[in-house]
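Support request from a user on the community tier.

User writes: "When I paste my structure tokens into the form, the page sometimes reloads and wipes my input. The last time it worked, I copied everything first. Here is what I submitted, just in case something in the input itself triggers the reload:"
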């Protein structure tokens, strides 16, 4: 329930459904944002569901497009998320920041702000990558990313 509440308050998801198990504890929840449904379940080791905290970090990063990345990012931090990378203009045309939610899952929050040409993108990528160093938690976050855009 705490995770669903965080996602509603921080990112604007709407609760669609919560199903309780025989013990009356939530075993499945669905939330929606701009036509995209995300399903959640608590850690259930007997069923192979392990939390990011149990695994030592998030196995993937959810990439979420929002109208105002700065505003959503600040709100998520205020609600208990931890900053991984501050909101920054990125070489591919997004303004984006990365955070870890209170349950240990990795999110990138972004607003698309530009359409760089391939040449501009290559130049900006070189410059940006030379100036960046990986966050300390990079090894625990994994290289995979899943997009949730609803666009």
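"...and here is what came back when it finally went through:"
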């Amino acid at each position: 329930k705490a995770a669903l509440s965080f996602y509603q308050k921080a990112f604007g998801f709407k609760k669609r459904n919560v199903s309780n198990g025989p013990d009356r504890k939530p075993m499945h929840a669905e939330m929606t944002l701009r036509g995209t449904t995300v399903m959640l379940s608590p850690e259930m080791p007997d069923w192979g569901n392990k939390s990011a905290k149990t695994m030592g970090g998030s196995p993937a990063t959810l990439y979420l497009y929002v109208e105002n990345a700065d505003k959503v990012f600040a709100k998520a931090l205020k609600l208990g998320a931890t900053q991984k990378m501050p909101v920054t203009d990125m070489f591919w045309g997004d303004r984006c920041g990365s955070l870890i939610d209170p349950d240990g899952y990795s999110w990138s929050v972004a607003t698309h702000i530009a359409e760089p040409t391939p040449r501009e993108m290559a130049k900006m990528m070189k410059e940006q990558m030379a100036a960046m160093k990986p966050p300390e938690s990079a090894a625990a976050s994994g290289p995979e990313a899943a997009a949730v855009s609803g666009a």
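Agent notes: The reload is a front-end session timeout and is unrelated to the input. Residues 118-131 form the longest helix (14 residues). The radius of gyration is 17 Å. Escalated to web team.
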